Amino acid sequence: MSDLAARLLRQQLSDLVPYESARRLGGDGEIWLNANENPYAHDYQLDDSRFGRYPEFQPPELIDRYAAYAGVNNKQLLATRGADEGIELLIRTFCEPQQDKVIICPPTYGMYAISARTNLVDVVNVPLDGDYQVDVDGVLANMDSVKLVFVCSPNNPTGHDMQPAKLRQLLEALKDQALVVVDEAYIEFSEQPSVLNWLGEFPNLVVLRTLSKAFALAGIRCGFTLANEAVIQQLAKVIAPYPVPEPVAQVAIQALSDDNLTAVANEVAGLNALRAEFAATMTGLTEVFPSSGNYVLFRVPDALACMQAMAQAGIILRNQSKQLTLQNCIRVTIGTEQEMARTTSALQAYFKEAV
Ligand SMILES: *Cc1c(COP(=O)(O)O)cnc(C)c1O
């Protein structure tokens, strides 16, 4: 009997390895710098009088506020259960299982491939080039049966912004052919402007955003998919009927108040200053990747040993060694000033021992 579920499982999923989220990986320690969260908590009020009713499909005030924040009109976005739901929704809406494909550009965020696989959609890997930039010619040479091209900017976990000229080239070449999904989960930390102001030019542009990173709301699961109305309308047909729970909408609306936007901008500036400081210190010790996100990737002599040494100091980081070209690379999320001070000295101690 015990193998019933295994026997019933969709055959194509038999060797699926689930996404190793920071929370699933777990770990012992009191300093959590492995999931690119913003460490600062904000206060929110909840009104429970509406919890007995189904929520709005797309809470109007939430949509209006995020549209204003992002500089789009309110027909050009869809609120989702995190940006992750946006990724899956795009695949479910546009890709025919066992027929269509998506392109991803590794090393990059892991959920594009997991969502494709769980929906029986093949993934074509077109690795980033030597400068960790999207390989436009490589993408264009591999467009057979491809409906979606996922590009992450700033890229997780390397930290690079994708050059606007390359994104433009891609969008232009694929204008009548495929959607280019630019994942801007970390755009608030970057100095490079969003590609959202290109929506008028490109019917095939889709942008993913989230409240999980800069807004310090990973726990509420709220993200946004932004695109021209024609794309949003198709996605709205496929998404669940109540994708934004009432408490999520209430918190997200408060998060998008003018006061909170100012607080977030100040936190981002502070985190970016800590990032610069951390990167400068690490550059004296080892290879450090430039970063436009709230995280920094660096290479160590032995990633497992370093992870263990850090865990012993109570600090949980993220080993990226399994990613293409990132052997012995570790990603650290920028935490509070105190967390960064402890992390920096623990890493300095590790390098003293290791080298
Ligand atoms: C964290 C992250 C997401 C997912 O964000 P959620 O809104 O929490 O689902 C999407 N893309 C990238 C690149 C991320 O790092």
UniProtKB/TrEMBL annotation:
<dbReference type="GO" id="GO:0030170">
    <property type="term" value="F:pyridoxal phosphate binding"/>
</dbReference>
<dbReference type="InterPro" id="IPR004839">
    <property type="entry name" value="Aminotransferase_I/II_large"/>
</dbReference>
<keyword id="KW-0663">Pyridoxal phosphate</keyword>
<feature type="modified residue" description="N6-(pyridoxal phosphate)lysine">
    <location>
        <position position="213"/>
    </location>
</feature>
<comment type="subunit">
    <text>Homodimer.</text>
</comment>
<feature type="domain" description="Aminotransferase class I/classII large">
    <location>
        <begin position="31"/>
        <end position="345"/>
    </location>
</feature>
<protein>
    <recommendedName>
        <fullName>Histidinol-phosphate aminotransferase</fullName>
        <ecNumber>2.6.1.9</ecNumber>
    </recommendedName>
</protein>
<comment type="similarity">
    <text>Belongs to the class-II pyridoxal-phosphate-dependent aminotransferase family. Histidinol-phosphate aminotransferase subfamily.</text>
</comment>
<keyword id="KW-0032">Aminotransferase</keyword>
<dbReference type="Pfam" id="PF00155">
    <property type="entry name" value="Aminotran_1_2"/>
</dbReference>
<keyword id="KW-0808">Transferase</keyword>
<dbReference type="GO" id="GO:0004400">
    <property type="term" value="F:histidinol-phosphate transaminase activity"/>
</dbReference>
<comment type="pathway">
    <text>Amino-acid biosynthesis; L-histidine biosynthesis; L-histidine from 5-phospho-alpha-D-ribose 1-diphosphate: step 7/9.</text>
</comment>
<keyword id="KW-0368">Histidine biosynthesis</keyword>
<dbReference type="InterPro" id="IPR015421">
    <property type="entry name" value="PyrdxlP-dep_Trfase_major"/>
</dbReference>
<dbReference type="InterPro" id="IPR005861">
    <property type="entry name" value="HisP_aminotrans"/>
</dbReference>
<dbReference type="InterPro" id="IPR015424">
    <property type="entry name" value="PyrdxlP-dep_Trfase"/>
</dbReference>
<dbReference type="GO" id="GO:0000105">
    <property type="term" value="P:L-histidine biosynthetic process"/>
</dbReference>
<keyword id="KW-0028">Amino-acid biosynthesis</keyword>
<dbReference type="InterPro" id="IPR015422">
    <property type="entry name" value="PyrdxlP-dep_Trfase_small"/>
</dbReference>
<dbReference type="InterPro" id="IPR001917">
    <property type="entry name" value="Aminotrans_II_pyridoxalP_BS"/>
</dbReference>
